[in-house]
Amino acid sequence: MSTPTIDLNADLGEGFGRWHLTDDDALLSVVTSANVACGFHAGDPATMRRVCERAAERGVRIGAQVSYRDLAGFGRRAMDVPAAELAAEVAYQIGALEVFARAAGTRVAYVKPHGALYNRVVHDEVQAGAVVEGVLLAHDAMPVLGLPGSRLLEAAAGAGLPVVTEAFADRAYTDEGTLVPRGAEGAVITDGDAVVERSLGMARAGTVTSLSGRGIAVRARSLCLHGDTPGAVDLARRVRSCLESAGVRVAAFA
Fold first, then answer.
1. What one-character DSSP code corresponds to residue 179?
2. Bridge partners for 16 per DSSP
């Protein structure tokens, strides 16, 4: 039997100016992939540069976390952006991060949407296609990270881009395998033991219990650990330690 392997990703660089939301340095000692905010929902040039440098020093893969242009709402507000405009904005964000990644001696290795955009492209074929068009404008072979079965991954695969399926350690699932909206009760898992247990189940068995109590399949190559939750660093360390103790190999996706 092959050894199960999982990538651990976290949203980093989510600050602006003197305001800092995530403990980037500490999380970069735990995760294998860093989803770096590119200035549209959070992040600024100095923050992007610093996170890229720290990630390169520690061998952590850099991903562009692209978003709707919504600093005030942290990219979590629903927006209607014309497809051509969204494609250009996705490409713009990737390009901005690529400057700092290359200056640090590495590159942007993948793309992951954030917040409202991430949820929108699970079902919206037009917006998903626009994100893929933006990725192709920036790079013709960049992997796309997203929810299994989403319109985004379908569009990316159809365009010849590598796709990477993702699961969430601290988010509740519906019976259909999608994320419970953040505004709903129980959408965010705050119990540390539960997060660790769910992480192990997804990494080893590819299953998770939905909010209604139903077991569902969640086949993913990457596991997201949100960096903006209280105690995020300690929880990330617990998750990684538990996975490795259980024989799960923690490594960035190829």
1. B
2. 19
DSSP-assigned letter for residue 34: E
Residue written as token pair 């330690």: 241
- Residues 48, 51, 53, CA angle at the centre, nearest 5°? 105
Tell the residue number behind the tokens 């929902």, with chain if given: 41
Between CA 91 and CA 34 the distance in angstroms is: 18
H-state helical runs in the chain: 24-27, 45-58, 83-103, 115-123, 125-138, 151-158, 192-204, 232-245
The letter for the amino acid at 3 is T
**By the 8 A CB rule, do 34 and 63 touch?**
yes
Q: Judge whether residue 34 has pLDDT over 80.
A: yes
Per residue in 198-229, pLDDT tens? Answer: 999 999 999 999 999 999 999 899 999 987 77
Closest by CA position to 86, among listed 113, 107, 109: 113
> What average pLDDT is seen over the chain?
95
In which element (H, E) is residue 170 found? none
User: In terms of Cα–Cα distance, which of 93, 98, 36 is closest to 63?
Assistant: 36
Is residue 191 within 8 Å of 230, Cβ to Cβ?
no
pLDDT at 165 over 70: yes
DSSP, collapsed to helix, strand or coil, labels residue 121 as helix
Could you give the CA distance from residue 81 to residue 52 in angstroms, rounded to a whole number?
A: 29
